[in-house]
Protein 1
Amino acid sequence: MPKEKPELSDAMRAKMSGKTPVKNPINGTRFTIAISSAKGGVGKSTFATNLALALKQVGCKVGLLDADIYGPSIPKMFGINEKPKSDGQKLEPIVKYDIQCMSIGFLTDQQTPMIWRGPMVTSAIKTFTQKVNWKDLDFIIVDMPPGTGDTQLTFSQEIKMDGAIIVSTPQEVALLDVKRGIKMFDKLGVKILGLIDNMSYFTGDDGKKYKIFGEGGVKKTADEFKKEFLGEIPINSEIGKTGDNGKPIVESNPNHEISKIYLEFANKIKSTYL
Ligand code: ADP
């Protein structure tokens, strides 16, 4: 039996031939911002969706790309059940809340697990970055899968990435992985815009702040690696409820104190790039 040749990415081929890999911007997009977390369940998709909506509110044209092939969240968080149209060449993003969206979850049954090998993931990411009709976007917010795997590599090596934000919770186990994430982006030459401390505290009925997952760890990690600490987002049940209902808090209640935090982040990103 002839041996199957392993599939090589463009970046790997370029590396082997000694050439500098070409990094393409995402078609139709000015700036690509990755939202990353080292661990699952820390609130990365919640942050990505609300940041995208906040950027729209401050006047930017925004796309949201769900790059979490194994665990897409955007269909649920944005309440999207339709399938994207295609002309056989390109996929049309689905527009919801004035945001152009794409997710593997639009193309598959929500409960079907994606059992794919690395090269298939790489190919899906390429389709989403090069074969979607993204139109006139100032920013595309990319919701990355957790960890440091194929998707991160494909993005960092083959696509022009303008910045990454790392979301973490304050627990020690999460922070360990954050350090790995910082090192990965540094190694791949992607600028880290900063770290977010999500679920940093809970305000009780008595008005006191309870730091149930520990205190100051994300900021300490940012300082240790000379990265910016972007700020804290407290635990708030409205965040969970609105996300589960398909209309994230920034869209459903833009005057909420939590929405104002996201709007501040959005203004900061807008003034950094535009
Ligand atoms: P990840 O993308 O990192 O896996 P998610 O964004 O899916 O994490 O969030 C995991 C769960 O935590 C969701 O149910 C979400 O609504 C909830 N969540 C995220 N951030 C907060 C927060 N600051 N306060 C309360 N719940 C939150």
Protein 2
Amino acid sequence: MSLTNRSLVTIDDLSDGEMEALFSLADEMADYPKNQTELCHGKIMASLFFEPSTRTRLSFEAGMLRLGGRVITTVDIGASSLAKGETIADMAKVVGSYADIIVIRHPWEGAARVVADYAGIPVINAGDGSHEHPTQTLCDLYTIRKQRRTIRNLRIALWGDLKHGRTVHSLIYALARFDATILFCPGPGLEMPEHVLRRLSSEYKGELKKCRNLNQELNSKLFPIDAVYLTPSSPHQLAMLPDINVGVELKAGVDALYVTRLQKERQAPTVGVQELKKGYPVVDKKLLKAKEFKKTLVMHPLPRVDELTHEMDADPRSMYFKQAAYGMPVRMALLALLLGAKEPTIPEEKDSFIRKTDYPVYHRDSGITCPNTNCVSNQETEVRYIKPEFKIVSRQPLTLRCIYCDHELHPQYVASSEWHQRKLENKKYHSADSHFAKKIKPENLIVFASKDEAKAQQFRPSSYVRQ
Ligand code: NCD
């Protein structure tokens, strides 16, 4: 399938084969960076960075220039019409009429999706709040591929702020697709969000093992493992093993340790950043002395603050500056593909692992909103043009996933739009976990945030409502 005119909003917008094709093209770009100057001649990239950036913005811009294209840019919300109250959608339509491709970074989760919906040209998500950062994942995987010659069956430890770090969120889904064993090593209170973990086990069908009660000694000897995720193709199913065997897992060595900084700008105002800093785990030479890390690649999306000591820079295992350098060929390849300047040769897709992504979509106005206050659907409030929209990812328990930010909600009350002869007295609502509720077809489903919301819409409780 061609990548021309497509957008990259989440890492799931690329199939495994498309990622591999992109990496092959990135090799070409890395080997001959100066030979690509005609590829995007005459094309314009709009680079809209409404949050700080060094690597992502400059590697996109340098990449576009090396492809022979041009760049228009804005780096400050205050200097754009968003500051005057313009909606993201209006901005997207306007920029879409000036440029051939948009690269956007924005503090709101789901903002890149809205831009992609309205721009009419390909859009690349360069980071949307804590949600995703798919091009960083491409750089990360490309780095591992360069060092290890494969991105399959890896053992990776994700370290630091797993709650707010968008790079780890995109990376984790990609790793799961490539059959990784993932060790979670968060700072205290910065664990991987529940919705991400649920998605790992429901969609990628792996085994997730929480390690909170794991042998303390084992934890302190190595590092603070909070959970382990194993993809189904792994030879053993962790859930069947006693806890201590996580140690056995580790003895086999870790391919990469992916360190992230404390995302202090994304903490809730009630959270004490100083406290978080005190408990934040640090990666240094001492930690990496253990034989499990002898061949471990030390990775970091950068910028680092103090979670990764500078003494590591001279260590041959340290990959972070290479990771940043690979940003340019990887992003050049991506731009060339989305702009149709190159057609990829996509390797045959493995069908051994099929994810369920064709969920029915829920988009009624029945009072439910995304639970994530930083979601674009809750932020663009002055003009309510973004209707909350959700994928119905499970009926038991009823689970709706926001199409913008992936946060989930579990509504307690439901009704069917197929009430008899549309008579008001037949408008009944039910408990979402009742036997009757499960029979409602997705296209007829109405969900309510509360009993009051159901009442406000003139529904009365059925006998299937728990008191
Ligand atoms: C990351 C980001 O912006 O999410 N930086 C990057 O793009 N390389 C990581 C971070 O800011 O911590």
